[in-house]
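tool_call: predict_structure(chain=1)
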Amino acid sequence: QVHLVESGGGLVQAGGSLRLSCAASGPTLSRYLMNWFRQAPGKEREFVAKIWWSGAATYYADSVKGRFTVSRDNAKNTVYLQMNSLKPEDTAVYYCNAYYSKDENYWGQGTQVTVST
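tool_result:
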């Protein structure tokens, strides 16, 4: 069982920055793909970014490419999402996800990000 706790959300003006953190605990974290998703009011949950614990490969949704950066600190078992040049359309609840298989797919509780104009 993997336990995930997000933090770092808040209210920021358009053009500003926030850094989200996802603290993970559990066995064999290194085998998990770590994802960030977000869900805006009235919309489906959508993929934002991903990184592998065991490597440096990353991947981003087109909507955040060039503005967001996902990284990890293996010593702290923490994954980060650095969000720059924030836009009002980035407003959403952001979720951390650890995925290995359909039966080993874990979610955090989410953290709210609100970007004002």
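agent: The CA atoms of residues 61 and 80 lie 16 Å apart. Proceeding to next step.
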